[in-house]
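--- STAGE predict ---
source: upstream dedup step, 1 unique chain passed
mode: sequence only
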Amino acid sequence: MNSLQDLSMAAAPDERIGLSRRHFLKASAALGGGLLISFSLPVLMRGAQAAEGASFEPNAYVRIDRDGRIYLTIQPVEMGQGTYTSMPALIAEELEVGLDQVTIEHAPADDTRYANPMLGFQVTGGSTSVPANWLPLREAGAAARVLLVAAAAQQWGVATDSCKAEKGEVLHPSSGRKLGYGELVDAAAKLALPESIPLKDPKDFKLIGTPARRTDSPSKVNGTAVFGIDVHPEGMKVAAITICPIVGGTLDEVDAAPAMAVRGVREVIRTDNAVAVVADHMGAARKGLAALQIKWNPGANGQVSSAQMLEDIRKASEQKGVEARNEGNVEEALQKAAKKVDAVYQVPFLAHACLEPVNCTVHVRKDACDLWLGIQVPTRAKTAAAELTGLPEEAVTVHNHLIGGGFGRRLEVDFVIHAVKIAKQVDYPVKVIWSREEDTRHSTLRPYHYSHLSAGLDEKNSPVAWTHKVTGGSILARWAPAAFVNGLDRDAIRDASGPYAFPNINVQYVRHEPPTGITPAFWRGVGHTQNAFMVEGFLDELAHIAQADPFEYRYPLLKEHPRAIKVLQQLRDESNWDSPLPQGHGRGLALTYCFSTYAAQVAEVSVSPNGDVRVLKVTSVVDCGIPINPDSVVAQIQGGTIFGLTAALFGNITFKDGRVEQGNFDTYRMLRINEVPEIITHVVESRESPGGLGEVSTVTIAPAVVNAIFAATGKRLRSLPIDPQALRTA
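--- STAGE serialize ---
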C-alpha cells in the first residue's frame, strides 16, 4: 500500500460540509423508488479521478427504500476487522437510526465508483477503512437526514428547524406529527442539497464511541455466513492443486491414469507449473492428487537455501543505499560523538497462515466469466481473469465474500490466476482450494530484512546521530510500480526512525531481491513490523547504555508527538512498570506511531534456565483518535498482539534445495490457547479523527517481548524468531 496521508479532518464541533464538498454529494431517486445518496471526495482521491473539467464518479451509495429499509454499499471487505459494524455505524449516527436498521451490501468490482478514498483504487488494507470513510459516510448519512427532514417540513408546511430526525422517523414535536423515512424518500429525492449540511458534535454521538455487538457475529456463529470457500454454484466441481515445490520451477510431466482411477475424479488439469485434480468432492480430489507421480523441472533454483540467501543479503547490505532521509550532518555528528553504537538486526520471511486457505471458484464461458472468492483487491482479480480469458473486463463478474483472514495475503491474485487457468479447461464452475501445505509453501512472503543501525551518543548518552540502512526486497516495485520512485521503496523504510526526533539522521534503502519465485508481499503491519522491531530494540540498547529508564529515555525524543508521550505516561502506570519482578522475569517496552494511531505495549515475560520464553502479560495503551466501536478496538489489539507474538516466537519460512521447509501448523507453529498471555488494553479518550487499528499491536509486540527478554536475562536478541538456544543458562 502507498504511505497513508495525514488526516487533518478532526471532528470539530462546528464541522460543516462547505460548497466544495457539497458538489460531490448527490441526491437522486433510487431505481424502483426511494432516496439514493451518492458521493465522491476528490480531495482524497489519488487514482480514480476523472480528467480535468469532467465530473467525479461516485464511489459509494446509501439507499433508503420506500419501506424504510436502509442499504449501505461499501468498498471495504469484511475479513474479521469489524468493517461491517463500523461502516454502518458512521451512516447510522448521522442518519439517526439504529445499527440494526442498516443492511450491508458488497460493492461490485469497480475502481471508478468504489475506490478507497485514501489509496485511489478498490482495496481493503493498510488499516485505512475507518480513516478513509470517517467523513464520507457520515456526510452521506447527514445529507440523507437533512433531505428527509426538509421533505417532512415541506409536507407539513412548517419550518425545518422545528422538526427533528429520530429512530428512522421525522418528528414535529409541537404538533406530535411524525413520518417514517420510507414515507418521505420519494419527496426527499426531488430536493436539492442545501449549501451547508451540519455534522454532529462528537459530544452528541449515540453510536460512535459506544460498544456495539458485531453485526457479522451471529451468522458466523450459526454457520450461515458465506465465505469464499463456502460458495457452491450449480454444477460446481472441486479441484485440489499442487504447485511445483521448487520455487520458480515448472511442470515436466504427469501421468493422469492413477488419479482418473479414483472414484469421483473427473479431470486432471495441467498448467505450466501446477497440476489440479477435479472431482465431485474434495475427498476424491485430494485422493486423486496423492495418487499422481509428478515430474517437476526445478529450473535455476534447485539449490536455493536460506543459508545462501542470508549470505547474499548480508553482502548486499554493505552497499550504499538510496537515501530516504538525510537531515543535519550525520557523518560529522558521529565523528564528534562521545560514543558510537552499531548493531545489525534482521527479520525472516513470513507467511500469512490465514485460517481460510486461499481459494477461488471460477466459471468460464465463451462470453462471460464469474469469480466467487474473498479478496482484498476485487478489481485486480477482475483484470487478471479478463487478461487470461481474453474477455473484456465488463464480461467478468467478481462475487466477493467474507474473508477468513487476509493479513495481506489476499492483496495478491496468484491464486486467482491458478484457478482461472484451470477453469478455462473445463465447461462447469470449479472451486480450486489450496491445501494448508500448498498455502504455506507457495504463499507470498513478508520480505527478509537485514538492517544496519548506528547511533552517536553525547556525554550524557543521548543520541545526537541516527543511521538506519534497510536491505531487502521491494514490494512496491512489483505491486505498485508507480510508487517505486528512484529506487526507493517507501514501505520498506517505514518507521526506520520511529516517531523520534534525532538532530542528525540518515535513512537508506538497498534493494536486494530473493531468487525468482519468492515473492515479497505485504504482511499485517507492512513495513512497520520490520523496522519497529529494529528501532525499538536498538533504542532499548541505547537506554541501557545510558542506564536510563526506557520510558524516560524516550520522552525527550518525542517532543513533536505529545500524544505519544501521553500514551507512554499512561502505559507506565497501567503496566505497573516500577513494581518488582521475580528472578528470570522482565518487562519490555515498545512504541509505534503508524496508520495515524499512537500505541505502546509493555510485555512481561519469564525465561526458564533452558531458554523457554513465556509471555505472561501484555498491557497496551492506544490513542486511535475517536474509537468507532471501543469493543472492536480491544479486539483488534488482542488479535494483532496474538498474530505478532506468534510470528515473534515461531514465525520463520526457510528454504532448502529450492523448497519451503514448512507446511502445516506442525512446522509453521501457531500460538496455542494455553500460551496466550493476559492482554489488557486501555483506550485513550480522544477527539482526533480515527486512525487505523488492525495492525498496530502486531507492530509493537515483537520488540516489547525482546526488550523484556533482555530485562530478564541480560541477553540481547537482534533477530527473529526468538531462539531459546541463545537464552539457555542451564
